[in-house]
Design brief:
Elements (H helix, E strand, L loop, with lengths): L3 E5 L10 E4 L10 H4 L3 E2 L7 H7 L6 H12 L3 H13 L2 E5 L8 H13 L2
Parallel strand pairs: 1-4, 2-3, 2-4
Helix pairs in contact: 2-3, 3-5, 4-5
């Protein structure tokens, strides 16, 4: 079984990344599309603009943000299934731009997808 990893888009790509998916709604500042080396951009599974602005990367709001984001993801089953199918065949790396590596939507998304890949 393959693995779902997360990585800041500002980090260098690696052969171990496998299929690279940008999961931010907004293109990351300072990264050219050529340098990003992504296979696809799934902005539709990023948090809504309202949720993103409410969260504002405040670590104290992370758990509430995660709950609200999970509710938003309920309407994204097709995209989640597509990514899970890909991850059953090869490594998948979810790319995000946030500076905080411990409080971001990619962590939530990784948990959701790992649950789908494991069964």
């Amino acid at each position: 079984m393959s693995k779902i990893k997360i990585k800041r888009i500002y980090e260098a790509s690696s052969n171990k990344d496998g299929y690279r998916i940008l999961v931010d709604r907004i293109w990351p500042r300072g990264v050219s599309k050529g340098k990003a080396e992504i296979d696809c951009w799934k902005k539709e599974i990023a948090p809504s603009e309202n949720l993103r602005k409410w969260f504002d990367h405040d670590p104290d709001r992370f758990w509430e943000f995660a709950k609200k984001y999970l509710i938003e993801l309920e309407d994204k089953q097709e995209v989640l299934d597509e990514i899970a199918r890909k991850a059953k065949k090869q490594n998948v790396t979810l790319l995000y731009g946030a500076k905080d590596t411990k409080h971001n939507h990619a962590l939530v998304l990784q948990c959701v997808l790992e649950g789908r890949v494991s069964y």
